[in-house]
Structures are given as structure tokens and as C-alpha cells.
# Entry
Amino acid sequence: MLGSVLPFSPELADKVSEYCENHSEALPEALNKHWEWTIRTWMDAEMMSSKLQGQWMIWMSQWIAPKRASVTLTVANLVLEVGTFTGFSALAWYEGTRATKAEIITLDVRGEVLNFTRKMFAELGVDDRIKVIEGPAASTLEQVDGQFDIIFLDADKHNYQLYMNTILERRLLSPHGVVFVDNVFARGLTMGNEFNPYIEKIRRPFWEANGETLRKLNKSFLEDPRIDTLILPLFDGVTQIKWKTGYLEPGADETSKQ
Ligand SMILES: C[S@@+](CC[C@H](N)C(=O)[O-])C[C@H]1O[C@@H](n2cnc3c(N)ncnc32)[C@H](O)[C@@H]1O
# Structure
């Protein structure tokens, strides 16, 4: 088996997810409860990250955060997220940065969901470090300042190219930071519309349009001279992006001046 993805049936994929969840550092109870609440409460809860993806976020942010602390002695502005929804992923970033107490900025356009999200953040006492900015990310990203070690793109796929351009042009990604771009497989349809017969009929046009967008986007990221791109078969496909080695001028690292 030389391929990078095992040929799982849906049943085996569920089993494997469950196995990974149960054999990884457990999600804190508050996140578990919040995930279950979202599933029960919101019709479109399928847009929330999976529990295992939450475990992955906690692990990654615990791993990345100390590196920045040791390099710069500052932990401000660690995580930027585009796509808050009910706040599950923001809670995971919060959990993973407890030691460094980093600020987490999360952007979303849906006021009716954010009303619940903000209330829940206040109840859980996490609004000391999570800042929610409401509005279309194309404009709110222009208002965000700082350099982020983790940037998570998990919103409207057809704007990902715009978001990446803003992030790179405004140097929002720290010199040693990483952008995680979520759902780059579009449920498998990035590879072609003939794949994945399991998508609900009503959701298929949405994912077919996303598949087409992501095919172009993945190619464009790969050809972008500013960045190094790695697509991984994690969850619904995650692209990891960092600055291309040597792209940033010496001294362009604002954090080293702090
Ligand atoms: C996949 S969900 C985010 C899920 C969340 N990160 C999680 O793991 O629970 C995508 C979110 O992007 C938001 N969104 C869509 N278009 C947007 C836009 N133009 N600007 C900001 N947010 C947008 C939606 O309102 C939705 O809440």
C-alpha cells in the first residue's frame, strides 16, 4: 500500500475516527458538551469541526505556542481564525494556548449565531482571550493587526484566495507561523464530481461548487512564490502553508523587534 490514504468504507471511516478520538488526549468536558449542544441545536452543525479535529487543534497549538514564546518573549496575537460558527474551534485554540495565554481573534459574518457564541464564551469565562469580530472577513481581515503563529481558514471557500492574499500582503502570518486551510478536499469532490456518492443530494451542488473552487485554489497556492504548501489527507483535507524559506527580507520579522 503505497498510497497515503487508506480506502475506507464509511463504516470503517467512522470506526477509525472513533478509535483516534479514544486513543488521543481527551477533549476537555466543556468542549465535548459544546460540540454535542451544537449538534442538537443547529441544523447546519455539520459545518463544525469534528471532535478529533478539536483534539488536533489543541495538540497543534500547545506544540506551536512555546516555540514563539522562546523566540520572541511575547505571546500576543497567537491565533487568527476565519469562521467562528458556534465557537468549537475557538474553544480548542483557547484550550491549547492556556499556558501562553495567547489572544485568539475569530471572525464571522453570521450575527444570529454569534449572539449565542458570545454568550457561551462569556459563560465559560473564555472571553478574556477570545475576541469575536463580526462582519464579512474580506473587510474584517483588513482591520486585524498583529502577527499570528496559527491562522485557521474555515469559512467561505470562494474567498480563500482573497483571504490568503490579504494575510500575506499584510504580513499577518508570523515568519515562523502556519496557515491551516480547512476542507480543501470538499468532501472528495476536489478530485472530481464523480467521487463520493455518499453526499446528501441537497448538499451536492454546494460541495461541487466548492470542489471546483478548491481545485483552482490548491493549484494557485502551489504556484505562489511566497509560500510553501503541503496538502494533508486529514479530516476533509487540510493544507498547511508557511512562508517560503528566504522570501521574507532580513528584518521583516516585526516580532524580533518587540
Ligand atoms: C465551517 S463554519 C466554521 C466552523 C468553526 N470553525 C468550527 O470548527 O466550529 C464556517 C463559518 O464561516 C462563516 N462565514 C461564511 N462566509 C463568511 C464571510 N464572508 N465572512 C466571515 N465569515 C463567513 C459562516 O458564517 C460559518 O459560521
DSSP finds eight helices and seven strands in the chain. The first helix runs from residue 10 to 22.
